[in-house]
């Protein structure tokens, strides 16, 4: 997008109001989103529980790039661009698999798990294999949560690791069991999902199941009365309770909040849906909520972890990948059923997808214009501010170089 | 589209020849069509018979805009942009429905039927509701036919009302019954349908059913012999007979013409397919044909009214919505059957859709060029002249401002 | 595509390496491919065996152009743009058919098989029919193989005719029988298929059936030992043996090579799958391979001819049309079955389509870059050189005018 056009749109932004139409619908803004945010920041791709053994891998499609995430021989995680250095073929064709070496299916060039070129048959004797490894992708693992960055110079991630680790550790995600995955293809802009997940102005009418579980979600109650007692109880068990808020240009968030008294889990009847997970021994841990912009949301209750990975695929489309993880010892049919485990977030998620899709359709109107956020949507306004600041930063940097 | 490119194409136009390829296939011309014609002129959306009671509504998708057409408490018709003034969600999600108030499904902002904002919960005390009504769309009703304009300064419509009203009044459309609707998605440019409906050069070979009903449609006969007697008979009954032709820059047309002697209706066997409609008491009213550019065609016989609403959705695509209306007292299964009522125009229409789609495919050729209209296609040439004049007008106005 | 951008890409090309991403994925390069190669060079469309009698025709969609290929009254072949000179409708609606005259389905303008306008009803008396024939397309027939050019000044084709004719003649293609056709819609760039068909670096692992039939295909053997004996035997029978290589800017190729001893045909078990074709009396003719850039490949064994017609439909898509021809006397069910006849090339072809589609997917990566061709891929490098030279030629010519 011509910088002057984008700059003009950024100049017209008014904090406290929803974004102008172009930010949601223009393919050139979509490219700017990738250039200045998605290709620069850290993207959640999955958990180490999905690749428990050396040679286990999965692939993630990030805009034009397929990325291989593979477990190395020492348990480490490698992320590699999935394009052979010979003639460019995909090396891994499947979304998930296991392999001792990565072999291109076209002409059988063979790569090690760390991406280095192991063998390229029939190449000349002076061929320098060391120059033809698969291109690496930056990767960081936080207590089993895998994040990648397509940038060679990504924002610092140490603070995220430091803040997230104590919260996530008790769930023992690295040894967890992937119980279920579900993918949605939505016709909406990714930012409308991010906005949706930052407010509960819509929760009362839209999410009866969610409001039955969470105190205050309907905006007519407050969790203030039960919170101090809960926090003390959590601290006694060694659970982290000090929330991490978005600050200035930070892009991650963590909070632990209580379930309604008597509610054990995020489930449609309030009862636990699996056995306590990891270090937990009861159903008393409340909800741990994590966010890492632009594409990661996680809610953990005592008996399961739910992750949401968003992938923006065009201005008007995104993929949402939901994953449910349970304790490594949980046995399907005995300790949990897929239906009960997933009901709560399938129902709640699908309520949101519909809202976000209809929000997008209305925004396509020639008469849509930025509207005022309500006071209870202050966190949405903050997300949108963060987003605009990232584009401003990107534009100014791009001009400078 | 760059004005100089469009201006160049307009300069190259030769009256009497079909349009240059770009006018039919170029996405930028499609945008110009919307800018200078579809968003400026009056679009037929449906009839009041579809929304008989206060709170009945339907929506119409006009390019990027969803428009709500809703019956008000005094029977008046309101047209509103279907985008919430809060965060832009669609307010009405369904194509047809009934509601006492219009409530946005996202955060429950509530609007009155006239679009004014009734309630916005949890907004600050100083929030000015009067500034946040749904944006209005211009709307006019002619004896039950509803037209909207997306322009804030549309062409004068009084002459259309004045000319159409006496023709339409006897059919009592406001109290009619919607018997059937059918939608077609066609791969053709909207102007090729408009051209098709302005000539009968193709009728003889293409439309055997139509030619059996209409004298002269095959171009080998003339209605001249029966016309004077017919017109006198119609006048005696108080039916309008004086046709309204396209003139200079006018965009509407009306004509009453006779059916072949012995033919009572537009039907495959020439017999009536329903009871006489509205004020009619026999099957002797011939055919009333109305056109209003760019998207309205209507043919009314003594026992039913058929409307065609075209919607241009891209250079290469359009939607055609056909509606059959019968007298309010007509009972399905007793006075009419869907099959017999709709056979004639489904068959004739589908013959035309095929011709228009193949016309478009051939025009995509690198070797397509404007060809000469035959003398019997003079009305097609006039439509194309009108179209070119509208773009010229639009371009010159746009340059002036 | 802006010439300076294309020129820059052409300047950056390094021979011996695969092309830069844009050449495979950019829609503007796709248009340049059509402008400088596909619309200029000769395109294979089919064989005269498909239109044995006067009035038999088929159509071919070349980018935006539908072309009619029709057999004339003296057995000659005409190629005509399929767009009526009146209002542009397609004249032939079906992909294959028979007609004594070409009649436009819209207003019944009638053309002779040579494209001249025969009749245009209801046109004015002074209408000059001679000025309104269907636009002709250049066409050449080589022993039953039909090639067209959309250029008014195509490259010389005499050398191709002269080189191909003696090779093709013994198969008596003009009187052959079309046994089977199969179409594939692939998501890949057309050049990746051309590259795939110029090397056997991939054959060993990818094509077990092919390697069982062809000596040397797996690159671990050589046909050198059997070749002299084979060539002498072929010459004794009057079969052409002197291969035609690509030279400088030539765009055609012919070769005859031996099958593995004991193998009679391209079949999954090495046995013949039909009766000897044309002048052949045994299964001893080896394989005749023909190529004509950009879209023609043919492999002929003693008992059948297989042609491949590629059509580039976008940067990321192409159609592949395979046709199997057998001797005119061969009777299905008795002399051949569709399954056995087509197994070999369906299996081998589908292996290649998968490779070419995955090659394309990997090339879409932001980290794809031109990789080095192996020495055994020298012919691929030559094709890519040829391709780049054609664009350079096109760009320089376009600049000059």
General description of the model:
3 copies of one chain form a homotrimer. With 401 residues, chain A is α+β, with helices and mostly antiparallel strands. Chain A has 2 domains: 1-46 and 172-401, Naphthalene 1,2-dioxygenase Alpha Subunit, Chain A, domain 1, CATH 3.90.380.10; 47-141, Rieske Iron-sulfur Protein (3-layer Sandwich), CATH 2.102.10.10. Chain A has 10 helices and 16 strands. A 6-stranded antiparallel sheet of chain A has the order 11-16-15-14-13-12, with helices on both faces. Chain A starts with a helix and ends with a helix. Chains in contact: A-B, A-C, B-C.
What's a concise summary of this model?
In chain A, 28% of the residues lie in helices and 23% in strands.
Question: What is the element layout, followed by pairings?
Answer:
The structure is a homotrimer of 401-residue chains.
Chain A: H1 3-12, H2 21-25, H3 27-38, E1 43-47, E2 56-62, E3 65-71, E4 77-81, E5 96-98, E6 102-103, E7 110-111, E8 117-119, E9 138-142, E10 145-149, H4 158-168, E11 177-186, H5 190-196, H6 203-206, H7 208-213, H8 227-236, E12 252-257, E13 287-292, E14 296-300, E15 305-314, E16 317-326, H9 338-363, H10 378-400
């Amino acid at each position: 997008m011509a910088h002057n056009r984008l700059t003009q749109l950024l100049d017209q932004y008014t904090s406290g109001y929803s974004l102008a139409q172009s930010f949601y619908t223009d393919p050139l803004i979509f490219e700017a989103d990738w250039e200045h945010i998605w290709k620069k920041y850290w993207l959640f791709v999955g958990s180490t529980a999905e690749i428990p053994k050396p040679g286990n891998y999965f692939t993630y499609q990030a805009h034009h790039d397929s990325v291989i995430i593979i477990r190395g021989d020492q348990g480490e995680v490698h992320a590699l661009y999935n394009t052979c250095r010979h003639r460019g073929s995909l090396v891994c064709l499947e979304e998930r698999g296991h392999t001792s070496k990565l072999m291109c299916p076209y002409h059988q060039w063979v790569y090690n798990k760390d991406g280095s070129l192991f063998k390229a048959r029939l190449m000349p004797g002076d061929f320098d294999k060391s120059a033809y490894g698969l291109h690496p992708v930056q990767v960081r693992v936080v207590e089993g949560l895998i994040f990648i960055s397509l940038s060679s110079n990504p924002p610092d991630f140490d603070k995220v690791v430091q803040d997230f680790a104590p919260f996530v550790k008790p769930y023992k995600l690295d040894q967890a069991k992937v119980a279920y995955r579900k993918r949605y293809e939505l016709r909406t802009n990714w930012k409308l999902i991010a906005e949706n997940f930052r407010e509960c102005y819509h929760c009362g009418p839209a999410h009866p199941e969610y409001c039955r579980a969470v105190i205050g979600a309907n905006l007519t109650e407050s969790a203030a009365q039960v919170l101090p007692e809960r926090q003390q109880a959590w601290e006694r068990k060694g659970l982290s309770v000090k929330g991490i808020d978005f600050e200035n240009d930070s892009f991650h968030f963590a909070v632990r909040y209580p379930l309604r008294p008597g509610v054990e889990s995020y489930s449609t009847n309030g009862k636990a849906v699996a056995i306590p997970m990891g270090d937990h021994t009861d159903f008393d841990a409340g909800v741990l909520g994590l966010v890492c912009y632009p594409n990661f949301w996680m809610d953990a209750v005592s008996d399961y972890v739910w992750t949401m990975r968003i992938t923006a695929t065009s201005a008007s489309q995104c993929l949402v990948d939901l994953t449910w993880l349970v304790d490594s010892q949980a046995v399907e049919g005995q300790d949990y059923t897929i239906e009960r485990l997933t009901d709560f977030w399938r129902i709640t998620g699908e309520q949101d997808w519909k809202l976000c899709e209809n929000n997008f359709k209305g925004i396509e109107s020639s008469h849509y214009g930025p509207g005022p956020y309500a006071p209870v949507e202050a966190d949405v306004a903050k997300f949108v501010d963060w987003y605009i600041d990232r584009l401003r930063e990107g534009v100014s940097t791009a001009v400078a170089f």
